[in-house]
Specification:
- This protein is an alpha+beta fold and 770 residues long.
- Helix content is 31%, strand content 24%.
- The protein folds into three domains: 8-18 and 69-275, putative glycoside hydrolase family protein from bacillus halodurans (Beta-galactosidase, Chain A, domain 5, Distorted Sandwich); 29-62 and 366-602, Glycosyltransferase, CATH 1.50.10.10; 277-349 and 607-770, Golgi alpha-mannosidase II (Immunoglobulin-like, Sandwich), CATH 2.60.40.
- The protein has an eight-stranded antiparallel β-sheet. Strands 16-28-29-30-35-32 form a six-stranded antiparallel β-sheet, covered by helices on one side.
- A hairpin with a 2-residue loop joins strand 29 (704-711) and strand 30.
- 50% of the residues are buried.
Length: 770
């Protein structure tokens, strides 16, 4: 995070693996299985009450997740001796991934350029001036973590620290010491090393204690590298940790051997190969006339101004953030991406897997960034291992399970500090199948059978837990008990606020979705026929969707009223998005009930909630309503008084959560292209406001890459490249044809559908019929 003050620059530095705590402990609540059975018996008994079940479910809880931590603040105090600052400009070039600060002082033009280089494994800042000998500054480090700073030599300083053994979530207020440090023998508390080295042209560089001094240089390069001792989710970061100092020294040595222009070229070559895959324009490309600062453009847009380049900018900003926070070989983007600056961050800046972590990755495959999802896949594999222990320890069941929160240690138990958490979120247990759908979706987008075969055991394990968890209700349906609709409550028949139920719509929708994915995966791999039959038999008995008395999709087992009718979670529409069970093209009755649900929930919400609703309305093929919510989300928080954007375009829950940035990108893409039903649906929810435009490089399931243009809200041309070969089905609102072929285009469910065989690597031109 680059603050850009001319005289008092701050770089807030983080390292993606720097978390509190250590490997998750086994069997932290041996009484949990007994309380699980008691809660289930109460819920299924006609004499029991949900209130009793809530108390029992609370006693099933384990420990809270650990926290993602800030590392250090670099303070650069530049000697400008009271000079008048003018011509100030701060910019982030998301096309080239470089941040720049420009200003003038006493006739001298100063420039600071900052890159965070993936190939260089470090941050580099270049300071330059239009006249020689003008760069003088003092540099020191501060941190919210206990630390030590030493001078390595006359041009380098080293920061070392050990993370706390325990950091309570920011909402836990009952402990006297919410932040606890361990000792050198404790397995909780990873080590970290941060090194800064200076390379200068002209001038003098020196160090004194923890301060680095530069005087009268012509140009300066700052090299910044950081490494933790984290060595995997199941390794003690103290006794089994990596040698962070040695690794960091090697990184720094390699980084400092290259000149600035080489470092910049390597960084941008690496970045461009991802970012430049997709181009998006609304109207004439490259013709923006709005050069106002971003904070002013945001306020203008919030007040109703038209700025379509701002909309496409925010789309690409989301892709920039994903490229920047989730790289192969690293760890997944957390609740704040990687940009947390607080010791006790909101919700521990952890992995909240009842939607938020998943939402971070919704745009990955859609916008041609499938590699950015690899850290999530690695995390899911780790979680399946701890989740297998949790399934046994907490439920006495086979398979694997994961609950509301997790962390870098792949914590999978029900959180809540052994009974202090509210079950409506702490005990939610559907993380495994929801995360597993990302594995199957990766296959659907890539057609990579090797990947599917490798990950099929993870899908199967999540299904095994669900099979064991399901139980029959009084009517013979297979249901879940206990059951939750994340973070929401209903009013029971006695007028009480209750969160624990049986067979919530979200539960049943996730199970149907996951069983279907497992069955299809087994069929693709020609394996596990007996297990697939079990899943098919169970699917036929699952408690179905119900339409409530208001015409809405029922959220609970009975048609109870919500305590908060406009609640931010709309979990019972999981089958609409991200699932594929609900669509106007499949069942108009259920789709209308989903629409009624959204009408009753209303358009207000936190940032991520607004983003999810954009995706919902896109799947309902209502582009104008989806666009309204885009505008609602793209409001400055000072105007929105709720979910929206901060002036740097980070999503506001509030406070900051990055999931809304990613969910917005997904929603905008779903308006332009959908493929969840096995068809490539072109411009399925194009709003009136996007009259003319083009987009290239989107990906569709079946391993297809799509470019398209439209005018007067109608498709003018598209081309589809087959990356794997196979059958391609295209849907559009108007008749279409493949240039040079006479394939039949038939009307189906209000659109025109054409089906044809493709060859790997070949591009097919799709044009409207005249």
């Amino acid at each position: 995070m680059i603050f850009g003050h001319p005289e008092k620059e701050i770089l807030q530095l983080n390292e993606s693996t720097f978390w509190s705590g250590g490997p998750a402990k086994n069997n932290v609540n041996p009484q949990a299985p007994a309380y699980f059975e008691k809660a289930r018996k109460v819920l299924l008994s006609s004499d029991g009450t949900p209130r009793e079940a809530i108390d029992m479910v609370s006693k099933m809880q384990g420990v809270y997740s650990q926290s993602y931590l800030p590392l250090a603040d670099l303070h650069l105090n530049q000697d400008l001796k009271g000079q008048t600052i003018s011509n100030y400009r701060r910019q982030l070039d998301i096309e080239n991934s470089i941040a720049t600060v420009l200003f003038q002082a006493d006739g001298v033009n100063y420039k600071r350029e900052v890159i965070a280089s993936a190939p260089g494994q470090g941050i580099v800042m270049r300071l330059s001036a239009s006249q020689p000998g003008k760069i003088s500054f003092l540099l020191n480090l501060g941190s919210k973590i206990r630390h030590k700073i030493t001078a390595k030599d006359s041009q380098a300083i080293e920061f070392t620290a050990q993370a706390p053994a325990q950091v309570d979530p920011n909402y836990v207020t009952y402990n006297t010491n919410p932040v606890i440090y361990g000792d050198s023998t404790d397995c909780n508390g990873m080590r970290v090393a941060l090194n800064i080295q200076v390379a200068n042209i002209g001038g003098l560089v020196s160090t004194q204690d923890s301060t680095l001094s530069v005087k009268q240089a012509d140009e300066v390069l700052l090299f910044i590298c950081a490494t933790t001792s984290f060595n995997g989710f199941d390794k003690c970061p103290v006794s089994e940790g990596k040698d962070e100092k040695k690794i960091n020294a090697e990184k720094l040595q390699k980084l400092t051997q290259k000149p600035w222009l080489t470092l910049l070229a390597d960084h941008q070559k690496d970045y461009h190969k991802y970012f430049k895959r997709v181009n998006f324009s609304l109207g004439e490309p490259e013709k923006s006339t709005n050069n106002n600062p971003i904070n002013e453009r945001l306020l203008e847009f919030s007040r109703g101004n038209t700025d379509q380049d701002f909309e496409t900018l925010l789309f690409q900003y989301g892709r920039y953030l994903l490229i920047s926070s989730s790289r192969p070989g690293g760890v997944p983007a957390n609740l704040q991406g990687i940009w947390n600056d607080l010791l006790r961050a909101p919700w521990s800046s952890n992995y909240t897997i009842n939607i938020n972590t998943q939402m971070n990755y919704w745009p990955a495959a859609l916008t041609n960034l499938e590699e950015m999802e690899y850290p999530l896949f690695d995390f899911i594999a780790d979680l399946a291992k701890t989740g297998t222990r949790t399934a046994k320890d907490f439920y006495n069941l086979k398979g694997w399970v994961a609950h509301h929160n997790s962390d870098i240690w792949a914590l999978s138990n029900p959180v809540g500090d052994l009974g202090k958490g509210d079950p409506k979120w702490a005990n939610w247990y559907m993380g495994a199948p929801w995360l597993s759908r990302h594995l199957f979706e990766h296959y659907r987008f890539s057609q990579d059978k090797v990947f599917l075969k490798k990950n099929y055991p993870i899908l199967k394990g999540a299904a095994e837990f669900l099979l064991g968890f399901l139980v029959k209700d009084k009517d013979g349906y297979l249901i879940t008990a206990p059951s939750f609709s994340p973070e929401n409550e209903y009013i029971d028949d006695k007028g009480r606020k209750v969160s624990t139920s049986i067979a919530t719509t979200m539960d049943m929708s996730i199970i149907r979705d996951h069983f279907r994915n497992c069955i299809e995966a087994a069929e693709i791999l020609h394996t596990d026929a007996a297990f697939s039959k079990k899943l098919k038999d169970a699917m036929a008995k699952l408690y179905p969707l119900h339409i409530g008395k208001k015409g809405n999709l029922q959220e609970w087992y009975q048609d109870w009223e919500d305590v908060e009718p406009t609640h931010r979670h709309v979990s019972h529409l999981y089958g609409l998005h991200p699932g594929r069970e609900i669509s106007p093209l499949l069942s108009t009755d259920i789709a209308e009930a989903a629409k009624k649900t959204l009408d009753l929930r209303g358009d207000a919400g936190t940032g991520w909630s607004l983003a999810w609703k954009i995706n919902f309305w896109a799947r309902l093929l209502d582009g104008n309503h989806a666009y309204k919510l885009i505008r609602d989300l793209m409001r400055d928080v000072s105007v929105s008084k709720g979910g929206g954007l901060y002036p740097n375009l980070f999503d506001a829950h509030p406070p900051f959560q990055i999931d809304g940035n990613f969910g917005l990108v997904s929603g905008m893409t779903e308006m332009l292209l959908q493929s969840q039903l096995g068809e490539i649906h072109i411009l399925p929810a194009l709003p009136d406001a996007w009259k003319k435009g083009s987009i290239s490089g989107l990906r569709a399931r079946g391993a297809f890459e799509i470019n398209m243009q439209w005018n007067q809200n109608k498709l003018t041309a598209a081309d589809i490249k087959s990356l794997a070969g196979g059958i391609c089905i295209i849907r559009n609102a108007q008749p279409i044809q493949i240039k040079g072929q006479s394939d039949e285009c038939v009307k189906n469910n209000g659109g025109y559908v054409i089906k044809f065989s493709t060859q790997k690597g070949r591009t097919y031109l799709i044009i409207p019929k005249i």
